[in-house]
Amino acid sequence: MIKQNSDGTNTPLTLPNHKLIKGSTLRGCLKSIRINRDPPNPP
C-alpha cells in the first residue's frame, strides 16, 4: 500500500500478510503514517 501525501510524495505502508489483523497491529500501521483510525465526531 502507498499513501500519497499532500506534498506529492509517497509513503509506503507494509501490512502483515494474514487473513486477520489485530486491532493493535492495525493501529500501529496507521499511526506510523499518521492516519487517525477513529471516525470524526459529528457536529
Short description:
This protein is of the alpha+beta class. It contains one helix and two strands. Strand 1 and strand 2 form a beta hairpin.
Describe this protein's structure:
Strand 1 and strand 2 (10-12) form a beta hairpin. This protein has one helix at 23-32, and strands spanning 2-4, 10-12. 23% of the residues lie in helices and 14% in strands. By secondary structure, it is an alpha+beta fold. Strands 1-2 form a two-stranded antiparallel sheet. 0% of the residues are buried.
Roughly what is the average pLDDT, rounded to an integer? Answer: 79
Proportion of helical residues: 10-25%
Q: How large is the share of residues in beta strands?
A: 5-15%
Report the end-to-end length measured between terminal Cα atoms: 32 Å
Beta strands, count: 2
* Tally of helical runs: 1
Instruction: Give the uncertain stretches in residue-range form.
Output: none
How can the largest sheet be summarized? 2 strands, antiparallel
Radius of gyration: 12 Å
Helix/strand order, N-terminal first: EEH
Q: What would you call the structural class?
A: alpha+beta
Lateral strand order in the biggest sheet: 1-2
Shape: flat
